[in-house]
Amino acid sequence: YRPAALPENLRENAGGDGSVGISTSINVLNENTVTYSANFGDHNLNLLGGFTWQTFRSEGNYAGGFGFPNDALLYYNLGNGSDPTRNIIGTSWNSYQLVSWLARAHYEYKGKYLLTLVGRVDGSSRFATSNNAYGFFPSAAVAWRLDQESFIRDLNFFSDLKLRASFGYSGSQAIESFRSLPLLRGETAYFNNEPQYAVQNGRPANNNLKWETTKQLDIGLETSFFDKRLSIEIDYYKKTTKDLLLEVQIPRQTGFESKLQNLGSLENKGLELSISTLNVSNENFEWSTNLTLSSNRSKVLDLAGSDFIDIASPTSGGPAARLIVGETVPVFVGVEYLGTWKTQEEIDASGQVGQTVGGPRYRDTNEDGTISDADFGVLGSPQPDLIGGFQNSIRWKNLTLDVYFQGTYGNEVFNILTQSAFFGRPEANKYLETLDRWTPDNPTSNIPRAGAVATLADVKNNSQMVEDGSHLRLKNVRLGYNLPLKKMGIGNIKNMNIYVSGTNLLLFSEFRLFDPETSNYGNDNLAAGFSSGEYPYGRTITIGLNVTF
Question: Taking the CA atoms of the chain, what radius of gyration do you get in angstroms?
Fold first, then answer.
């Protein structure tokens, strides 16, 4: 229930509004596997075959009432809403099925040469035709335990040494159910001041949708030294994804704005490094450290003949994220913000019309005298140059301490709120920095003067909205103490640990809003890096007692 006193309801004199929703879901998963193992001297063989089946169904209903005259009944009587044009009744239904046939063969020779072969056939009801519903995804992996070879053991240098590689295919059907089918939606039109209810096409059908397929190569090296006190693991990967399941904009003359299609391909490749050390180890004191670093580089390879595809437009200032052939996935786009117009002579020399001294100034890339989407360029990417984590674990007698940091470097975040909080009209919330905006007494400021923007549609997406998303977070700290039970005369308890832990305790970032890791589009990887002030990760303090009998 949202009371009438909320600013948006109060401003529109809309009264309160309430809603109630109920949903029920059933998920059934059945897995059947059979395994055969055999040893033939130096040869070990393990075979596995299986069949899995999954079905999911959900149903829901929703009702909402608007224009409540007071807040006495809350959402317990939705019929109390006095605005029938806004009252809502809705239902929902969802269903999908998955089937898989799978087989795996694992072979070892003398424990140092390893081979694994996997093949699976997956079928999804989310694709319309039987030809497209099924996909075959094979893979193979090999490994060589070099530390088992005599010429490596004789070096007396490595504690462990293993080289591995794999190559294979995987599929994705990460789309909503029934997306290959057309959709009807309800619409209301008014004739002679009377509502007329009907349905119309809500989206186009695409019977040709099929599995998105990724082929991937992995090469890794695992090694340790000094009786395993130092361990290093290095991985290189390269994967290419084709037949991307993308919502692609189509000509509005079709009656639709976009259509889900299999389109184009992209590449991801990168390195992952893990270093673990046992710094000190004795009866009373132990200290270990783990450092992980990873770097991924993505690139759009093909978009079926198109140079780019717009994938996110969260503001009225035009497209904000695109897939562009040859660029990372995705990139933020917009015009370059140059500050404010300082003199009328600058405006006259630019040839741009409708500009005012103290107003926002953008780079007119094509020099046609207007700022439009044609002036848009790449402003950044949400993809970090480096992702890292650093953990220290310390034990001193019965006391333990674990501290974990994580962070990113080199990524950008598109701040949606900047359009209104930096450039927008006066009734919207503003950044504190706008107190230093342009005025006749402050003519050097690069913050637009008050009233310079008539509507937010005049504020094109620009570089001022793209901020550095690099950050370092103290993700977790845990301090524990194992009570000396024997000294305390407690013999019927195996272990008793009292601890205090905290998560998300500190954040070091120059991002304007709460948290650079939040996302306006949830888990959508293609539209990553957008923030509109979502609720940040919660800071949690936990005190606990763990007893083992």
Answer: 30
